[in-house]
């Protein structure tokens, strides 16, 4: 998969800009606050119609403007056996401060965001990804779920259905006020049945995904860290031992008392281990940064294996998160396909980008000294 070009109009700090990245590595260089990450954010936005920084869509519209436009041409590079087929698609998203946003794919309007999923696949690493290791369980659950959607967009519907059932069940528990009346019991039975079915499916998908990611995370971490260390993930879901239906039944009294669902996929943990120690509490800051990067790169490899097309790799300010030796190790092991990285300083000596872009005051300049 390759981004051929992207045009921004009134997006973030940009009034109007066009970027045509190289098929391989493109370096985006400039001081902090000049708009480097905004370019990466716009590319990532194409995949999910949301910001990887967690920014509301209305905040992506440039100050003083009413709408923002992100327009791109993407080569999906469909791999069929040993033959590569190029399939160009155009995507245009209009973000509005008032009214509904609009998305066109090949000039056809999308009715749902879900219909875009899979059209563009990206893997994004940013300094905030340290939370994958240091943050709470919700960060790691979200990581797994995002990878599942990248592998198969239909998983988004499963997660949406489970979220709706969970919200309905929690609303019922809250309204019950701790009392299990006949009406509450019969309605709870309906939601428990639906939640058990959906939750079991998601739990099994996550557990299988963790099993597949484990060797990739271990290999990738050791490449980036340039050392031999045992790394692994573990999916902790106690309810899976006897099934979610039984777990919900056993937790019913506690759920009624607390007015919230206390067991299920929304409460599961994913622990990251480094040499058999929990990385969240025992790994150094440098190790945690390398682990976060390894998680992203491992998922990138897995999506490539399954789809036969490498996602677009976006590395935001990655060199500020790694020491020189690990930066060089990353450059030596960049996965195949298109990659864009941002940095505030000149690149490490071993970085040989095909294209270099300088960013200053909301404008971009191509470095004539760059390769390609």
Can you characterise this structure?
The model has no long low-confidence stretch (mean pLDDT 91). The protein has a 6-stranded antiparallel β-sheet with strand order 2-1-4-7-8-9, covered by helices on one side. It has a 6-stranded mixed β-sheet with strand order 10-14-15-3-16-17, sandwiched between helices. α3 (137-151) packs across α5, α5 crosses α6 (244-250) and α5 (182-225) packs across α9 (285-307). It has helices at 36-48, 131-134, 137-151, 155-176, 182-225, 244-250, 252-258, 279-282, 285-307, 324-332, and strands at 2-11, 14-19, 25-29, 67-75, 78-80, 83-85, 88-96, 102-105, 108-109, 122-125, 231-236, 269-274, 277-278, 312-316, 339-343, 355-360, 363-366. By secondary structure, the chain is α+β, with helices and mostly antiparallel strands. α10 links the parallel β14 (312-316) and β15. The protein has 10 helices and 17 strands.
- Please state roughly what percent of the residues sit in beta strands, choosing from under 5%, 5-15%, 15-25%, 25-35%, 35-45% or over 45%: 15-25%
| Shape field | globular
Helix content: 25-40%
| Euclidean distance between termini CA atoms | 19 Å
Helix-strand topology string: EEEHEEEEEEEHHHHEHHEEHHEHEEE
Q: Residue-averaged pLDDT, rounded?
A: 91
Q: Number of DSSP helices?
A: 10
Strand order within the widest sheet? 2-1-4-7-8-9
Low-confidence stretches: none
């Amino acid at each position: 998969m390759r981004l051929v070009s992207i045009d921004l109009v009134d997006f973030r700090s940009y009034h109007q800009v066009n970027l045509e990245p190289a098929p391989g590595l493109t370096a985006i260089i400039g001081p902090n606050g000049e708009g480097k990450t905004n370019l990466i954010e716009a590319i990532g936005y194409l995949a999910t119609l949301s910001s990887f920084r967690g920014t509301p869509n209305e905040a992506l519209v440039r100050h003083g403007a009413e709408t923002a436009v992100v327009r791109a041409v993407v080569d999906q590079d469909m791999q069929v056996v040993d033959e590569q087929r190029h399939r160009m698609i155009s995507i245009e998203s209009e973000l509005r401060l008032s009214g509904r946003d609009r998305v066109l794919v090949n000039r056809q309007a999308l009715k749902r965001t879900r219909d875009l999923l899979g059209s563009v696949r990206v893997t994004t690493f940013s300094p905030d990804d340290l939370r994958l290791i240091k943050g709470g369980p919700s960060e790691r659950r979200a990581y797994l779920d995002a990878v599942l959607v990248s592998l198969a967009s239909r998983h988004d519907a499963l997660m949406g259905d489970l979220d709706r059932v969970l919200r309905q069940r929690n609303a019922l528990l809250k309204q019950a006020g701790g009392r299990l009346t006949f009406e509450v019991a019969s309605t709870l039975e309906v939601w428990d049945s639906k939640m058990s079915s959906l939750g079991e499916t998601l739990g099994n998908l996550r557990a299988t995904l963790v099993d597949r990611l484990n060797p990739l995370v271990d290999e990738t971490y050791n490449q980036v860290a340039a050392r031999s260390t045992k790394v692994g993930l573990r999916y902790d879901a106690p309810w899976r031992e006897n099934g979610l239906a039984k777990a919900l039944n056993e937790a019913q009294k506690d759920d009624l008392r607390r007015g919230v669902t206390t067991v299920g996929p929304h409460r599961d943990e994913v622990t990251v281990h480094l040499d058999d120690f929990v990385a969240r509490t025992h790994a150094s800051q440098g190790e945690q940064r390398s682990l976060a990067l390894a998680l992203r790169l491992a998922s990138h490899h897995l999506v490539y294996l399954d789809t036969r097309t490498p996602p677009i790799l976006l590395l935001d300010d990655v060199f500020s998160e790694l020491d020189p030796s690990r930066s060089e190790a990353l450059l030596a092991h960049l996965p195949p396909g298109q990659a864009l990285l941002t940095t505030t300083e000149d690149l490490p000596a071993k970085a040989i980008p095909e294209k270099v872009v300088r960013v200053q005051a909301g404008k971009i300049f191509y470095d004539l000294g760059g390769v390609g």
